[in-house]
Amino acid sequence: MRVVKEEERGSPMKKRICSRKWELGEATEGGATKGRLPNIKDMSGLSADDAISSVVIESEYSCRCFSLVEIQSMTNNFNEELVIGIGGFGKVYKGFIDNSATAVAIKQLKAESNQGAEEFWNEVKMLSKLRHTHLVALIGQCNDCQEMILVYEYMARGTLADHLYNRSRNETEISTFHLTWERRLNICIGAARGLDYLHTGTDQSFIHRDVKTTNILLDENWVAKIADFGLSKGTTSNSATHVSTKVKGTFGYLDPDYFYTHRLTKKSDVYAFGVVLLEVLCGRPPVDTSLKEEEISLILWAQQHIKKGKVDRIIDPSLSGQITPQCLKYFVEVAYNCLHTSPKKRPTMGEVVGTLDLALVSQRKGRSEGMIGKMFKGIAIVPKGMNQWWGERKDNGSKSGPSKDLFWEPLSNGVTRPLRHFSLAQIRAATNDFKQRLTSVEGTTRDLPWCSTMTTTSP
């Protein structure tokens, strides 16, 4: 990719040429004709062969070049009322393209931001080349008058983090919508598919390097899309094992192996995605300094509870009663394995997608068969022997790390052990004849002499 010198950017004639190529439909060297910006829904069909060369960037990639005047028109001269996001990089505005009803997101990078020119062009290069349902589409860029601006498809629902942590974007069309378990699961599957495409979908693999809940965006239909490719790295080939590079990313999501060795691999993305999965399940950020010392790190806190067979204690209380047992088994296992200290023992993103798909199938099957059912005041009674189901080996009862027998039954066969049948007398004994005092606090659990309990509610 060749970046044109600064004095060339300022040439009014060259800027007009760039704009006119899109307006009039100028033929490229390959014979393809370029016209006005295509509809966003049609952009997934664009390929690298359909690219045009612009004034600012000359490459094989397709990307519209906007003038600063056009950007000012789209944002009503950067009206603060149109700001939908603020970060260390600058601000994101909502705008409308070509005086139409097509909304776009316009990210204006601050000149002094950490996300400098190198990352700006890196994102232009990558997103102009890659098209996928679960990657945010780049519409164009503006490098006019020393501005660095990126124009993306508009994602009406904001980020996954917005909904996990009830962050408001002050958008009238976005309501504070609680994410159900099945919706969270679908979002995870979509994001995983996007990462799998980056890793394996092209001849040259790409490593995102900054996977986190704020970089998973949601459209109006709750379709998840991976965003922010400023830190991404491309490998020399699909079979390349790693890239040696400076450590960059976000604290709380960094792969420890990458941090210590500076060897960036696809499994570094897998590790970060494992953190995302825990956030989705637990409803808390990777690092929370307001908590007790042993709870500050989400990873360490969650792993300890999983090893001790106390998964029920880490689940987001708002999800009480929504997750079927078999679905939870699949989900917890894949999250746990993504966080293995050894990159080689982590699953690929393709394997993550497969396991999450099985979790979704199990969730829907379990709900349809009434596996959760109506529970007495939010308490479901589970046989004591099923403690192994939460993290102990079935052979010797010892605690185990991530392995195929992390749960009491290998997940590969897809068979769910039958639940124990209780008599009414046993249920009355377990609940002290259905006394209200046993369930006075919603979401609590209680271990009885002959059974363990798991919080849940009526569906």
N-to-C CA distance: 55 Å
- Secondary structure: helix percent: 25-40%
Largest sheet, described in full? 6 strands, mixed
Unreliable stretches covering 5 or more consecutive residues = 1-60, 171-176, 372-418, 436-459
| CATH homologous superfamily grouping of the largest domain | Transferase(Phosphotransferase) domain 1
Q: So what's the CATH class of the largest domain?
A: Mainly Alpha
Second-tier CATH architecture of the largest domain: Orthogonal Bundle
| Shape annotation | globular
> How many E-type strands?
16
Query: What class would the helix/strand composition place it in?
Result: alpha+beta
* Radius of gyration based on Cα positions: 25 Å
| Element string (H = helix, E = strand) | EHHEEHEEEHEEHHEEEEEHEHHHHEHE
Number of helices in the DSSP assignment: 12
Mean pLDDT: 73
Strand order of the largest sheet: 3-7-8-6-5-4
Strand content: 5-15%
Number of domains: 2
Looking at the structure, the CATH topology of the largest domain is Transferase(Phosphotransferase), domain 1
